[in-house]
Specification:
The complex is a heterotrimer. Chain A is α+β, with helices and mostly antiparallel strands. Chain A has 2 domains: 120 residues, Sandwich (Immunoglobulin-like), CATH 2.60.40; 90 residues, Cupredoxins -  blue copper proteins (Immunoglobulin-like, Sandwich). Helix content of chain A is 35%, strand content 21%. Chain A is built from 6 helices and 12 strands. In chain A, a hairpin with a 7-residue loop joins strand 6 and strand 7. Chain B has 4 helices and no strands. The relative contact order of chain B is 0.17. Chain C is mainly alpha-helical. Chain C has 2 domains: 457 residues, Cytochrome C Oxidase, Chain A, CATH 1.20.210.10; 157 residues, Four Helix Bundle (Hemerythrin (Met), subunit A) (Up-down Bundle). Chain C is built from 25 helices and 4 strands. In chain C, strands 1-2 form a two-stranded antiparallel sheet. A two-stranded antiparallel sheet of chain C has the order 3-4. The model of chain C has no long low-confidence stretch (mean pLDDT 93). Classes of the chains: A alpha+beta, B mainly alpha, C mainly alpha. Chains in contact: A-B, A-C, B-C. At the A-B interface, helix 2 of A face helix 4 of B.
Chain lengths: 284, 133, 853
């Protein structure tokens, strides 16, 4: 398509250049109708018909039904609420800001939004689909190659639209199944004193009012579920990497890193901050 | 050309004489527009309310045939009015009444060609795409 | 049939014979006539200069203002590019960035591209048509002042950090829920400008249809006029849906009526539909007039008539129609049924064909002509190179599967800038170089022009060509920054450098435009040796437009009628004099341009300024929820407009007919379909009806889109009252028509009686209509809200209709409206035709639909 476009562009502009610069003199009038009918009608009709037939032929691909797995994604300002519904599931496995898919299967992604319009897009895996409040849309993806891809919101959704991203991890089907099983579990017990102290900080600072960590008394639904946050690839919906250092930066500077984000920046003593980061990092 | 007195009701006279050909310019595209609206509207309602989409497609394809027929009829009339076979005039650059008359025919004829292409293009999805997915 | 008013018919020989035209005009007479004309058309001096209404002045202001807004929006683009030059840059905050890109898009579209078309057309069209002025000069002045006030208000908001920030498309719920006045500024400020645009469109359409020179039949019109006609028509059908959308949007913002709130049955998709039904044709509204400039330049450069005149007309009309079938290609990713996407994909491909024909017609013209390269042609060639590129990416984007990938990425940014620079900016600059000698009677510099061209052209490609790749590599639009390491960094840096090269090119162009040119010697009268009428202009400048209005028998009269310019100058043709000291222009018939009337046109005045200022207040105060001053302003604005109409339109003339030259006598007054005012009303009401249709579309859209419309157990309008309302509207309509007929047959008392009863019937009907929905709570659900909106729409129109009926009553009492001079009541009857139909549809929806759905 690109090559065709280049050829056409060269043809039209070359003709103009030729008429105006190289041979500005008068041509025989009899050619003119051929240019008009040939260039203006026949040529475009042939090319456009071919393109249109091809385009219509593959138009419905992203809406083909899936092989069983359904992922429900809700766009929030500015992160992604994710629910996995394996075939036959009666209740979802809850996660956030990361989407894992098995390679070689077609998964249905059901999309909605809490407040404003977003758009779900993993450039390497397929086209985009908008997410509306009060309306369900669907796109199905059939990734082939195992790997990690970047996904992001493509519809302008407010101040931090630029930082509404996620990682899409495509796994071997067996690996995916065992990962999903682990994802359904409650949070692991903190390993080590620092992490234990960190859980105390997490609960006493009121983090649980917004975030849920299954298996603890933190059951907030306002922000992303953190039960297995330590196993994710990114932090703050694709804002930064998930390392100890980035975790402390994020907790203490969330508003600077992500304008107008709901989570306030926490001004904690350095050791408490460090403990908290260790706890979160350990939530594999 | 015989001298004649302009008349304050000139518009009315002209219209009664040229009404058909002035409107004929827009007939082709109007048929396209009606066909397009029918396609969009019926499919939107059918998909939203769960009607039988196959039935709607057949109905609309019949509509396409009717639209093409209508455009063909308009185009034929315009071609006759253009009267190129007799005059050989593609340019209509003089300021006589018959130039204007032929010009309007010519323009309407060309527009009906474009409208016909438009109707055919818009009918393609009806043929190629099955359901409401 | 209605009785004739008894006004005189045109008398005398027409068309003029060669002997009549060859007869010389005595020198003394020529001098006296020119003196009188000069005095009548003199442009006011000093402070009173702003009261000018002549198209040459208003057009110039319009162009300059649009240019300034464009430069401001360009500076915003530069800040945007600077911010994006490096990853994670913090030159501006996210909020500021969002304001900047929202304003950049809104200003370029609403404050530059569309007004520029109106500006250029107001400036050039009378010249091309050999008319003295536009048919309604005060309306253009009013439109200009509205544009200035609204534009300054909207663009000024960015300096106070309260600019709209939800994108130029203002998608709800983001825009409806936005805190702060940004969204209101966008909605009210731009609605105000949209109204001005429609006013300009009405005037341009009437000007093209009724103010052509005698003999210029429809097949002889300059191509520019054809495009104006098509684009004017498109504005009438494209802008009203947006105005209807704005109306609903503002009702939601101000009164919490949930049109776009999904929790109460509303639907954000309705806005997307209304916005893009406007938004896509708008692209062609911008593109077609610019291509029309190319259609004027190319024959001059090729030194022969355009090849394929009928083809270009076909292309303009065809594009105009097809462009209304494209809007959903902005919504390919919203999850509509595939088959619907297919229709729009197909129509988007089909529109390429007329556009291509247009380009190939230019090519054919150049081919059969002897090309003489000029600076304007250089810009046109650049435009073509850029536009074809944008067109080809457009062909790709029209394929939905490709769009799924490219939608809302920098690929789109590249595509739209290629189409708009190629389809608008470059041709308009070409037009400035080409028409500058006509506008300012000076020439622009060839050397600076070439420099400017190459800077802009190379800068443009440097900036936007890489964006195709940036987009394909996954960079979404409207992000205030981006992380490093995704391969976007160097592409963005190149784009930023390119943006500054464009800016340098523009700077040169603007300098060339404004640098003092006093020392430049007098230019030749027709520097490009063009063939169309505007190049018969007077050098040095005269404000009268054309010395006498010629009889035209060819498409390129200056090439084909060699005696013409001398005869125009001598005052040999029509209207060479202004004996009564009044501004006049010739009205001709629509198809064959036979002279039918002499139209008095209005002169300098302050009233348009006042009217615009108060209209501005009526739109601007509600932004801050200051309703009492807004209402006061609205009342004063209406007062000003009534005063202006009363004192200067459709006044009975001192003599029924006058000699216009060449032995022809024409009437000086017209009413009904023969008058320009009637045509203007007709065209305006077409636009109004479109807006109303958009509201009704909204009603049925909700019904289609949602299962609970109307919701179970909802209260419905009182059917009896809607029935009563419909009877009242029909009665008021019948009384108005009756008044017109009685008045014409001389029974003025009976006519006045009708005009007393008609407003009462209308007021009663409007009250009944509002009462029928009064018990519904519009904030509870979208169903009562849309019924309320329909009722309010009709009530407001009834209010306007009542004012008009009273205006006619006053006219009849004070001798402005007589059995012979009854233009006002003709126009008012026309208004009432439309309002009555809309009212009956509304009553049907309110009264019958609850049972039917």
């Amino acid at each position: 398509m690109l090559a065709g476009a280049v050829v056409l562009w060269l043809f039209v502009n070359g003709a103009f250049y030729f008429m105006s610069r190289i041979r500005p003199g008068r041509f025989d009038q009899t050619y003119a109708p051929h240019i008009l009918i040939g260039g203006g009608i026949i040529l475009p009709v042939v090319i456009l018909s071919a393109l249109l037939v091809w385009g219509l032929g593959i138009l419905t691909d992203p809406r083909r039904p899936g092989d069983g797995l359904v992922v429900r994604v809700t766009g929030e300002q500015w992160w992604w609420r994710v629910e996995y519904w394996p075939e036959g599931a009666t209740e979802p496995i809850i996660s956030a800001n990361e989407i894992r898919l098995p390679a070689g299967q077609r998964a249905e992604i059901h999309l909605t939004s809490d407040k404003v319009i977003h758009s779900f897009w993993i450039p390497a895996l397929g086209g985009k689909m908008d997410m509306f409040p009060g309306r369900d849309t669907m796109i199905s993806l059939a990734p082939e190659k195992v790997g990690t891809y970047r996904g992001q919101c493509a519809e302008f959704c407010g101040a931090s639209h630029a930082w509404m991203a996620f990682s899409a991890v495509v796994m071997e089907p067996e690996a995916f199944d065992s990962w999903l099983e682990a994802e359904a579990e409650d949070a692991v017990e903190p390993a080590g004193d620092a992490a234990l102290r960190g859980r105390q900080v997490f609960l006493s600072e009121g983090c649980g009012a917004c975030h849920a960590v299954r298996g603890t008394e933190a059951v907030g639904q306002v922000g992303p579920d953190l039960t297995h946050v330590g196993s994710r690839q990114t932090l703050g919906a694709g804002r930064m990497a998930l390392t100890l250092e980035d975790l402390t930066t994020w907790i203490s500077h969330s508003e600077a890193l992500k304008p107008e984000v709901k989570m306030p920046a926490y001004d904690l003593a350095p050791d408490r901050l460090d403990d908290l980061a260790r706890y979160l990092e350990g939530l594999k | 050309m015989a001298e004649h007195r302009p008349d304050r009701n000139e518009d009315r006279h002209e219209f009664s004489e040229e009404q058909a050909s002035l409107f004929r310019i827009t007939f082709g595209p109007l048929i396209w527009a009606l066909h397009f609206l029918a396609c969009y509207g019926l499919v939107a309602v059918a998909c939203a309310k769960g009607a039988d989409i196959a039935m709607v497609r057949i109905l609309l394809l019949l509509g396409s045939v009717v639209a093409l027929g209508g455009i063909g009829w308009v185009g034929y009339g315009a071609f006759r009015q253009w009267n190129v076979v007799e005059t050989g005039d593609f340019v209509h650059r003089r300021g006589h009444a018959e130039d204007r008359h032929h010009f309007l025919g010519h323009a309407a004829f060309l527009l009906s060609i474009i409208s016909a292409i438009g109707v055919i293009f818009v009918s393609l999805p009806l043929v190629m795409i099955g359901g409401c997915q | 049939m209605t009785r004739s008013s008894g006004l005189p018919q045109p008398e005398g020989p027409y068309p003029p014979t060669e002997e009549m035209l060859a007869e010389p005009v005595p020198r003394d007479l020529q001098r006296d006539q020119a003196e009188r004309l000069r005095r009548v058309w003199a442009t006011p001096k000093g402070l009173r200069y702003v009261t000018a209404v002549n198209n040459s002045e208003v057009g110039k202001w319009y162009c300059l203002t649009a240019l300034v807004f464009m430069l401001l929006a360009g500076v915003m683009a530069l800040i945007i590019r600077l911010q994006l030059a490096l990853p994670e840059n913090d030159l501006v905050s996210a909020d500021r960035f969002n304001q900047l890109f929202t304003m950049h898009g809104s200003a370029m579209m609403f404050l530059f591209a569309v007004p520029m078309f109106e500006a250029v057309s107001i400036l050039l069209l009378p010249g091309m048509l050999g008319a003295r002025d536009m048919p309604f000069p005060r309306l253009s002045a009013f439109g200009y002042w509205c544009f200035l006030i609204g534009g300054v208000f909207v663009i000024g908001s960015i300096f106070f950090d309260v600019a709209p920030r939800a994108g130029w498309f203002m998608y709800p719920p983001l825009a409806t829920e936005d805190e702060g006045p940004g969204s209101d500024i966008w909605l009210l400020g731009l609605s105000f400008i949209e109204v001005a645009s429609i006013a300009a469109a009405v005037e341009l359409i009437v000007g093209t249809l009724k103010c052509r020179p005698p003999g210029m039949r429809i097949n002889l019109m300059p191509l520019y006029a054809w495009y104006v006609l098509v684009v004017g028509g498109m504005i009438l059908f494209a802008f009203p849906p947006l105005i209807a959308g704005d109306f609903l949007f503002e009702l939601e913002r101000s009164f919490d009526w949930p049109f776009f709130d999904p929790t109460r049955g509303g639907d954000p998709m309705l806005w997307q539909h209304l916005f893009w039904i406007f938004g896509h044709p708008e692209v062609y509204i911008i593109f077609l007039p610019s291509i029309a400039i190319a259609a004027m330049v190319i024959p001059t450069v090729a030194r022969r008539p355009i090849y394929g005149y009928s083809w270009i007309v076909l292309s303009a009309v065809g594009t105009g129609f097809l462009s209304f079938g494209l809007w959903v290609h902005h919504m390919f990713t919203t999850g509509l049924p595939s088959i619907s996407l297919g229709f729009f994909s197909a129509a988007s491909e089909a529109v390429v064909i007329p556009t291509g024909i247009q380009i190939f017609a230019f090519l054919a013209t150049l081919m059969v002509g002897r090309v003489k390269m000029t600076l304007p042609m250089l810009w046109i060639s650049g435009a073509l190179a850029i536009f074809t590129m944008g067109g080809l990416t457009g062909v790709m984007l029209a394929l939905a599967p490709f769009d799924f990938q490219a939608h809302d990425t920098y690929f789109i940014v590249a595509h739209l800038h290629y189409t708009l620079f190629g389809g608008m900016v470059f041709p308009v600059i070409a037009g400035v170089y080409y028409f500058f000698p006509f506008i300012q009677k000076k020439l622009l510099s060839e050397r600076l022009g070439k420099w400017s061209f190459w800077l802009t052209f190379s800068g443009f490609n440097l900036c936007f060509l890489p964006m195709h790749l940036t987009g394909l590599w996954g960079m979404p639009r409207r992000v205030y920054t981006y992380p490093s390491g995704l391969g976007w960094d160097w592409l963005n840096l190149i784009s930023t450098v390119g943006a500054f090269v464009i800016a340098a090119g523009f700077l040169l162009f603007v300098w060339d435009l404004i640098r003092p040119k006093h020392r430049q010697p007098q230019i030749p009268r027709n520097p490009w040796e063009a063939g169309t009428l505007e190049w018969s202009h007077d050098i040095p400048e005269e404000a009268w437009g054309v010395r006498s209005i010629p009889h035209v028998t060819s498409r390129y009269p200056l090439w084909d009628q060699p005696e013409m310019v001398a005869r125009i100058d001598a005052g040999r043709y029509y209207l060479p004099d202004a004996e009564e000291g009044r501004r006049e222009t010739l009205i001709t018939s629509v198809i064959d341009a036979e002279p039918v009337q002499v139209q008095r046109v209005t002169g300098p005045t302050w009233i348009t300024l006042w009217a615009a200022a108060f209209t501005g207040g009526a739109f601007i105060f509600p932004t801050f929820h200051w309703y009492p001053p807004a209402i006061v302003c609205a009342v004063l604005a209406i007062g000003c407009i009534i005063g202006w109409l009363w004192t200067s339109t459709a006044r009975p003339p001192e003599a029924d007919s006058k000699d216009v030259g060449l032995g022809l006598r024409l009437p000086t007054y017209a009413a009904g379909p023969a008058s320009v005012g009637w045509w203007a009303m007709w065209i305006t009401m077409l636009g109004d009806a479109t807006a109303f249709a958009s509201l009704v579309f909204g009603f049925f859209f909700y019904w289609t889109a949602s299962a609970d419309f109307p919701p179970d157990g909802a209260a419905h309008p009182l059917a009896l009252l809607t029935l009563l309302a419909s009877l009242g509207f029909v009665l008021s309509w019948a009384l108005t028509i009756g008044a017109r007929r009685l008045n014409r047959s001389g029974r003025r008392g009976a006519a006045r009686g009708c005009l007393v009863l008609a407003p009462l019937a209308a007021a009663g009907a409007a009250t009944a209509l509002v009462a029928s929905v009064l018990h519904l709570d519009p904030t509870s659900h979208v169903y009562p809200a849309i019924l309320w909106a329909l009722a309010i729409w009709i009530a407001v129109h009834a209010g306007a209709g009542i004012l008009m009926q009273l205006y006619c009553l006053a006219g009849s009492v004070f001798g402005k409206l007589t059995p012979r001079h009854d233009a006002d009541i003709w126009n008012v009857s026309l208004f009432w035709h439309f309002v009555t139909i809309a009212a009956l549809v509304t009553c049907a929806v309110l009264g019958l639909m609850p049972g039917a759905l």
